[in-house]
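Lecture 7 notes: from sequence to structure.
We start with the chain below.
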Amino acid sequence: MSDNLPNIKTQSQFRALFSKWASDVWLFWTTTVHQISANTLGWIANITLHIATIPTLLGLMTGVVNKIPSLDVILIVWAALGLLFFRAVLLKDLLNIITISAGFMVQATLLALIFLK
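Predicted structure tokens for the same chain:
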């Protein structure tokens, strides 16, 4: 048997050990996993906002779609991304800063290619 395992002789020792293990798992879940999940969902939201207008812009470039997306939709998406960008700057969240900046560059390039065509 391994030396790392605790020596449990009584039921009260087992309950105390199990209680400590359960509290450690709960602490890990409420601090670490919760934070990772929240950050991941925020990053996925940024990506989703960027991808919202890409299919229409690519369709315009290839000639599949003739209708330009309405300006209010693009402005709302860009305003949301702008707010998320400033939030990321205040929180010093480098992943979101890079993701949003790259998305703005790609969307601006696509819009420039469409309107300067």
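Points to note: The helical segments are 11-51, 54-62, 71-91, 94-115. Residues 39-115 form one domain.
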